[in-house]
Design brief:
Elements: H1 28-32, H2 40-43, H3 59-74, E1 87-92, H4 98-109, E2 113-117, H5 131-141, E3 144-149, H6 154-159, E4 166-171, H7 177-190, H8 193-196, E5 205-210, H9 217-226, E6 233-239, H10 247-255, E7 260-264, H11 267-270, E8 276-279, E9 282-284, E10 289-291, E11 309-311, H12 332-350, H13 354-357
Parallel strand pairs: 1-2, 1-3, 3-4, 5-6, 5-8, 6-7, 8-11
Antiparallel strand pairs: 9-10
Amino acid sequence: MVSLPAAQVEHGPDPVRKDGILGNRPDPAKFLERSPKLKVTVLDRLHHQSVLSATLFDKELLTELAKLAAYLQLGRFPAGHALEDKIMAAAFFEPSTRTRLSFESAMLRVGGKTISVADAKTTGVAKGESMRDIGQMFNSYADVVVVRHTEQRAIEDLTEYLKIPLINGGNGSDEHPSQALADWYALLKWNPEIAFGTLPEQFRLNIGIIGTPGNMRTVKSFLMLALLFHENINHITIFSEMADPLGDEMRELTKSSPIGIDFSRNLKQSLEYLDVIYMNAIAFLGDGYRSFGSEFALDNESNLKSDTVILHPLARGPELCTGLDETQHNLYFNQADGAVWMRQALLLAIFGRVRDVVPTTFLA
């Protein structure tokens, strides 16, 4: 199949209120056309695995997980009872709407049950209980635990006694790997050539990241996964008011990447060549939430290319105007919607239940 320039790949219908969701709605079926068979042996690598960092994933594993999510989204095979014998604990020691609810929705959609911690003040932590001891208790209460915490080292402390798989739902300013999976699921549906083809050099993607990977967990995990698709990414520009937006860890990870990475404070000057814009403005820095990048706002008057798409993990503030919601630039609602399907796929793979729900005709 001839590789198509990004601007010529079908990105779905014009923005309509399809299923109540506005904006760009790429068809999951198109993502499956190039490689319809699932490589279940690749997904087996996630069996009983904890997902602590985006570094767990390579291009092949991410692509196969996205394929499974696409089949689930299309309803090609029933999965409603796959995890009916499993319990997920959603332990959120930091406020969350989308991540907690999408994980709970994902678990319920595959037949599992959920128990939740929605407020740290209602747990033993309020009385001084250690995260290590809480991890020991989770072994008795659930089969998998999704954790969000304000402190970066909380995940490490929990895993000291934990025997069941743990999914990092965001730890301090460190990482948010399942959010990055949802981000890239949206992008791979939007342009399947990113995963399955090789774009001509002049059509490789230019990505703009508004935020600071060094201390914003969603931005950091997104950038980590972006490095996996280096053959189809020409350049990444990081827009930040900070002098060192990468930080030591990300600087080391990006050092060997063939992708050109630079930094700028002039978003307006760059908009006309960006194909993808990933933006976030909120970071938790230990003592509370802070807003970064407010000077890099997007609205209806922004000089975007006609086929530029915008990603945002939400919740948004004034940095992303609601006037963009009913345009083809809006991939952020599809990004949020797809998180439920990607998290279903992740849970099925962690529990080793992919073969139980996928007919053999769909397997490579």
